[in-house]
Design brief:
392 residues, ten-stranded mixed β-sheet, alpha/beta
């Protein structure tokens, strides 16, 4: 395999350019440039559908040290548009490694650039905001550049499953609030044996990560994964004990079909609903809440989320958030309550309903990669299902 290097260039929409290198001669790639501050997890990021349409800048100075393996992918596809790094390790050092990152990039023909100043690029995105970019060979850099606005693209339709499939493992309101969102005095964790009921969970796939499915399977759930475009009737025909609204890419406002369906599920379904990331945004929009785009998003493994003196360190990956002004929206304030906030910028991080068995978080409780502070939410979801079934 050739180890030649090829000059490459990254053009930003505001006219800024960064030169670097690639392992093969690039054709032109267009995407939204974002940065992730995690020190690990590049394999999960490459395969996370939430990054669809985006070129990811890795702020950690060298990636690829542990190679890639067959177990850590979050989907069956590479979903990012390009990989941007300071340095890519050529020789992995891990007993789990099956292939080096360099060889994987070449084999998959993944657009990439390395050797540029990622610190400078990240600081530029923080001050100017995320923007579209074009990555190409230096030989093609004189061509006319065209950029893209992902905010108007329905990325959910691009990554959602086309078919319904099943996955199984071969082997009252104050109560609701304390159950889902613990305080210092209520950090109860539940064992698998305590929760095992083989509940049927329907996942609405906006860009589901495998790790979310794995967490529910470990709780002995029977999983049905449905397309994001599924109707209310098709979802309820599965006779779910609970519904999970998954993570996913893009602007939640574009997925109006999903918002309409979730609104019907809340009003008529009487089934516990748990929203994660994009699912959180869609759940809140179904109640009438507003969303807006962050200047440079939250993408990393160490985002503090909580309220008052309580804090969880969370894994996050999103460019849009739910507006904090729930109390200004009468239809929202009647049904929704904010519980946790991102403690870096005070944006909404978690909500629950006082009238319906639904709750959602902007962060990733499966945290793959990331800390396990919020993993209890899957167990709380199962216990909420049991609580609702006992009341029926």
């Amino acid at each position: 395999m050739s180890y030649n290097l090829y000059p490459a260039i990254l053009h930003l929409q505001d006219g800024t350019s960064y030169k670097g290198w690639s392992f093969f001669e690039l054709s032109s790639s267009i995407g939204e440039i974002v940065f992730n501050t995690g020190m690990t997890g590049y394999q999960e990021i490459l395969s996370d559908p939430s990054y669809a349409g985006q070129m990811v800048v890795f702020t950690y100075p060298e990636i690829g040290n542990t190679g890639l393996n067959k177990k850590d992918n979050e989907s069956n596809f590479i979903t990012i548009k390009a990989l941007i790094a300071k340095n890519i390790s050529l020789i992995p050092s891990s007993w789990r490694s099956n292939i080096s990152l360099r060889d994987y990039i070449v084999h998959k023909k993944l657009p990439h650039i390395f050797g540029l100043d990622t610190r400078s690029l990240t600081r530029h995105l923080r001050s100017s905001g995320v923007m579209s970019g074009v990555l190409c060979s230096c030989l093609k850099s004189t061509q006319k550049l065209s950029f893209i606005n992902l905010d108007s693209v329905d990325l959910v339709r691009k990554v959602t499953t086309r078919y319904v499939y099943m996955s199984v493992l071969t082997q009252d309101n104050p109560i609701l609030e304390s159950l889902i969102f613990p305080s210092y005095s209520n950090l109860n964790r539940f064992t698998t044996n305590e929760l095992a009921e083989n509940y049927k969970i329907v996942i609405i796939d906006f860009g589901i990560k495998f790790s979310i499915i794995k967490k529910l399977l470990l709780l002995d759930c029977c999983i049905y994964i449905l397309p994001a475009t599924s109707s209310y009737l098709s979802i309820m025909q599965c006779n779910p004990d609970g519904i999970l609204l998954s993570n996913g890419p893009g602007n939640p406002l574009i997925a109006s079909y999903a918002i309409s369906t979730v609104r019907k599920l809340i009003k008529f379904g009487n089934v516990p609903i748990f929203g994660i990331c994009m699912g959180h945004q869609i759940l809140n929009k179904s109640f009438g809440a507003d969303t807006f785009k962050l200047k440079f998003g939250h993408r990393g493994l160490n985002h503090p989320s909580g309220f008052g003196k309580y804090c969880e360190i969370t894994s996050q990956n999103h460019g849009f958030v739910v507006s904090n002004d729930l109390n200004l929206n009468k239809s929202c304030s009647e049904y929704l309550s904010a519980k946790y906030f991102n403690l870096n910028d005070s944006t909404m991080a978690a909500t629950f309903s006082a009238l319906h068995p639904v709750f959602s978080v902007q962060y990733h409780p499966e945290a793959s990669p990331g800390p396990n502070d919020s993993e209890y939410l899957f167990q709380a979801f199962i216990k909420l299902i049991r609580l609702i079934k006992l009341k029926k």
